[in-house]
Specification:
By secondary structure, the protein is mainly α. The protein has one domain: ABC transporter involved in vitamin B12 uptake, BtuC. 75% of the residues lie in helices and 2% in strands. The protein is built from 15 helices and two strands. A two-stranded antiparallel sheet has the order 1-2. Strand 1 and strand 2 form a beta hairpin. Helix 2 packs antiparallel against helix 4, helix 4 runs parallel beside helix 10 and helix 6 packs across helix 12. The protein is globular. The mean pLDDT is 81.
């Protein structure tokens, strides 16, 4: 007999009914707790070591102030919050794209949407000389334009999804990658250096101007994704079945892709291209929770945990090496992608 802890408990009243899955709730809460603990510990790490107790006291407003308070609020807290919300945004974006494409390889960095967001951000950095909010806005616009191009090229008979969406996205991403390299070559030296540092994906020197766009965007968009997650899960059973249940299949796909691209663009604008968090986070939580629906909140919490852990690992690396966070996630994520591809081929 299957345990209700794994399958869920049906809660009904006169107006509605819903399925509560204790295992999903417990796993999500544990991941959130781990992410918050790692984030608090990350604030203590740096050239100036700050005790964990003083960190909590300062954040609660009862600290002693002084230099440590300035370091916490102006340097380390923006860095940690950027990691949390960038990771959460990428986790949700990956969950949506994997559901839309019905493929574990469906994520914004694989399909090319992150490259499109990087194109918009690079245009702002190299050509217009903007930063902060301007880079974030340009990244979102670049991601949305890329998504529109991929959708128009992959749509067939009024529908998209599956391998066609992934293959078209990879092709468009390759073209945009060449365009990005061209902008780096044609830009002036100072702008090219700044752009190259940004392309490495980094949480260094994050300020509140980096935190606010991705934080506000994630807080606004994630609940909207949650509202449509059930419809997207039904679409995974097949377009015909979903239409019979009264779901606007293509309208739901377009809306969810818009939300996912906006999240990926905001994350890219805040920290640069961060590879494989969007790919790995949804798959990890699906294995931990055993859920069959789109894992929106659990993927957000896992994405935040992965990016905070990656940043913490980069800061604690031996020999005082300065490791860009995007390169570290790319290294680990590449190994994960190889494992995922070999596992899929065996199946």
């Amino acid at each position: 007999m299957t345990s209700p802890f794994a399958t869920g408990v049906v809660v009904r009243n006169a107006a509605m009914s819903m399925v509560v899955r204790p295992r999903v709730i417990v796993v999500t809460l544990v991941i959130c707790a781990l992410a918050l603990f790692c984030a608090a510990y990350a604030i203590t790490v740096g050239r100036v070591s700050i005790p964990l107790g003083e960190v909590f006291a300062t954040l609660l407003g009862s600290g002693e102030g002084g230099v440590n308070s300035q370091i916490i609020f102006n340097v380390r807290l923006p860095r940690v919050l950027t990691a949390i919300f960038v990771g959460a945004a990428l986790g949700v974006s990956g969950a949506v794209f994997q559901s839309v494409s019905r493929n574990a390889l469906g994520s914004p960095d694989v399909i090319g949407f992150t490259t499109g967001a990087a194109t918009g951000a690079l245009f702002q950095i190299i050509v217009l000389g903007g930063d902060g909010f301007a880079v974030a806005a340009s990244a979102v616009c670049g991601g949305l334009l890329t998504a529109g191009a991929v959708y128009l090229l992959s749509v067939r008979n009024g529908a998209t999804g599956g391998y066609r969406l992934i293959l078209v996205g990879i092709g468009v991403g390759a073209v945009l990658l060449a365009l990005n390299n061209l902008m780096l070559v044609r830009g002036d030296l100072d702008s090219a250096i700044v752009a190259n540092l940004w392309l490495a994906g980094s949480l260094n020197a994050r300020t509140w101007s980096h935190v606010v766009p991705v934080m506000v965007g994630t807080i606004v968009i994630v609940p909207l994704v949650c509202l449509s997650a059930r419809s997207l899960s039904m679409i995974e059973m097949g377009d015909d079945i979903a239409r019979q249940l009264g779901i606007g299949v293509e309208r739901t796909r377009i809306w969810m892709m818009f939300c996912a691209v906006a999240l990926a663009g905001l994350a890219t604008g805040a920290a640069g291209p961060i590879a494989f968090v969007a790919l790995a986070a949804p798959q990890l939580v699906l294995r931990l929770t055993g859920a069959k629906s789109v894992p929106v909140l659990s993927a957000a919490s896992m994405g935040a945990l992965l990016l905070v852990l990656a940043d913490l690992t980069a800061q604690l690396s031996p020999l005082n090496l300065v490791l860009p966070i995007g390169r570290m996630t790319g290294l680990v994520g590449g190994l994960y992608l190889i494992w995922l591809l070999t596992r899929t081929r065996r199946r």
